[in-house]
Amino acid sequence: MRDCIVEQITKFREYHGTANQVFIARDKIGDRVGFIWVSQSRSGFTSVVQAYILNVYVTEGHRGKGLGHLLMSRAEDWARERNYTSIGLSVAAHNISAITLYEKLGYETETLRMFKDLDGLTAT
Fold first, then answer.
1. Could you write out the DSSP letters of every residue in 21-87?
2. Is residue 41 a contact partner of residue 49, using CB atoms and an 8 Å limit?
3. Residue 50 contacts by C-beta under 8 Å, 6 or more apart in sequence?
4. What per-residue confidence (pLDDT) applies to 45?
5. The domain 2-104: what is its CATH number?
6. Contact predicate 26/32, CB 8 Å
7. Starting at the edge strand that comes first in sequence, how are the strands of the sheet with 49-58 ordered?
């Protein structure tokens, strides 16, 4: 996981610069138990520069204990410190626990991306 994150960060910084931040959550003994990666982004719908959560993760054993809420709050603080007026994110439709958290925090659906699997279909 670490190598994948480092690779993503490197590519992102090459393309967008360094206007992004990763916050890592650790437990009482210092083990990493989660992270959130937030960045500056330009909305494809409004062209407004905003904060955007690229990735958030909490280890399975630490889910449901408020850590996701804490990480989201830290990302929002980071955005406010930079005077962004909005923050966005994407979430998989099947990730009900994440959607529930985001809605509790005041996030609303802005767009709905739809998908159709074309595997096995042929054109006539």
1. EEEEEE-TTS-EEEEEEEEEEE-TTT--EEEEEEEEEE-GGGTTTTHHHHHHHHHHHHHHHTT-S-E
2. yes
3. 40, 41, 42, 43, 79, 84, 85, 86, 87, 88
4. 74
5. 3.40.630.30
6. yes
7. 20-26, 32-42, 49-58, 87-89
Burial of residue 75, with CB atoms counted within 10 A of its CB: 0-12 exposed, 13-18 middle, 19 or more buried: buried
What is the per-residue pLDDT for 112?
84
* Cα 47 to chain centroid, rounded: 19
10-residue mean pLDDT profile of the chain (124 residues): values are: 73 67 93 95 82 95 94 96 93 93 94 84 60
Element (H, E) at 101: helix 96-104
- The predicted pLDDT at position 15 comes to 64
Instruction: Report how far Cα 19 is from the mean position of its chain's Cα atoms.
Output: 15
Q: What's residue 110's pLDDT?
A: 86
Domain ranges (residues) in the chain = 2-104
Tell me which residue of 64, 49, 19 sits closest to 37, measured CA to CA. 19
